[in-house]
Write a structure and sequence with these properties.
0% of the residues lie in helices and 41% in strands. Strand 4 and strand 5 form a beta hairpin. By secondary structure, it is mainly β. The protein has a 4-stranded antiparallel β-sheet with strand order 4-5-6-7, with no helix packed on it. A 4-stranded antiparallel β-sheet has the order 8-9-10-11, with no helix packed on it. The protein has a 4-stranded antiparallel β-sheet with strand order 12-13-14-15, with no helix packed on it.
């Protein structure tokens, strides 16, 4: 995964995040983690996935197998960890600092290879944290309980209430689902584009 600031995560083979610039012709440099060894300590990762930055340039990395989102300063210094089961994708509201995490659980008996590649994602749950220092989510909603295909989320900050658009939640329903942030809960807005 690559975010808008040039950070890129590597997964099972290289449990680390690399940093580069769009015009860099050289190999990217190591930002956090280790290119050969997974870990669960501060600054260590085990299958990093989604990645984003906040308004201050802090980097949020979904550390999937450690069930957390790790937050790093632009220098790479560990700042915080958010407990997020099966953390897969992350988005940060640039004004409020709220963090939205999509957790995707694998079906343990449907892995296609040693890297867990393929359509073996089942349960998908969206979590909201009020800040990077939160100790637990303030809201969660199960988006799919038994489905295949990896989900995708996008955060829309343009309205009075943030909206998380989720897609590819199930293989039999590829529509765009609207989830409204109501503060301490989520409201399922259904599939409004299909309903037009």
């Amino acid at each position: 995964a690559v975010d808008r600031s040039g950070f890129r995560s590597r997964t099972t083979i290289h449990p680390c995040v690399l940093k580069t610039t769009w015009d860099n012709r050289e190999d990217p440099g190591l930002f956090v983690g280790d290119e050969k060894t997974s870990g669960a300590g501060a600054g260590e990762l085990s299958e990093p996935r989604g990645i984003t930055t906040d308004a201050d340039g802090n980097v949020y990395v979904c550390d999937h197998l450690n069930h957390r989102v790790c937050v790093f300063a632009p220098s790479g210094k560990p700042l915080a960890q958010l407990p997020a089961k099966n953390a897969d994708l992350v988005a940060v509201h640039q004004k409020t600092g709220a963090i939205y995490v999509l957790g995707t659980q694998h079906h343990e008996h449907r892995n296609l290879n040693e890297y867990e590649a393929g359509n073996n994602y089942t349960r998908k749950e969206l979590f909201k944290f009020t800040s990077r220092n939160a100790t637990k989510p303030v809201a969660s909603i199960v988006l799919a309980a038994d489905s295949y295909g990896r989900g995708v989320i996008a955060l829309d900050e343009s309205g009075d209430k943030p909206v998380i658009w989720a897609a590819s939640l199930t293989s039999h329903h590829p529509g765009l689902r609207k989830i409204v942030d109501e503060g301490d809960s989520f409201r399922d807005g259904g599939y409004p584009i299909e309903e037009r």
